[in-house]
Amino acid sequence: MKPLLPLLFFSLFFSCQNTAQVNPKQQAVINAKPVEVPLQNGKAKAYFASGCFWCVEAVYESVKGVNEVINGYSGGYSKNPTYEASNTGRTGHAEAVEVIYNPQVVSFSTLVDVYFASQNPIQVNGQGSDKGSQYRSIIFYQNEEQKQIILQKKEALAKKLNATIAAEVYPFQKFWIAENYHQNYERLHPNNGYIRNVSIPRLKRFQAQVPKELLKEKDH
Fold it and tell me: What is the mean pLDDT of residues 51-71?
């Protein structure tokens, strides 16, 4: 089965980029009206997908104004997705994070900046060696204002790099919380080989290129 995987990922990539070939269920997700998540106790929520959620969780948890990050799945059309199911590429979901933040301290616009600064923005269907539609980059918007912020930043980055930015832009619909063992993974498993060799280096690269004022005191 292994030789078939590159063909599967290749097919998934082009199905996501060419609306004429998109799975009808996935197209319905892309065309849906965004769901806006209300503030709770003054805290807002934002949703991002950018490769392995262990890595993205660690990045956002280092940002000042972010209270909590939860790992899960979003962007697909199946209900109650699991880690095993999403890894098949047949649920439409990507590994994603729910970022719970204080909008009085950090803005959605800044969180989008964090998103682009913490990844290879031109890699399609993955980050580094994590490849597949479940690792694709997606930024989710909850209203028109957020959508325009995302599109403007994506366009500016494309001009700066003179390249196509891989991140897809989806209306937020539903976030499915991942299995318990995926939560706080870097913090609980600092000696895990993937964490040491992939997640922590990605976090350090991000922290090295952003203003220290953006980061929590304990992280710099």
Answer: 98
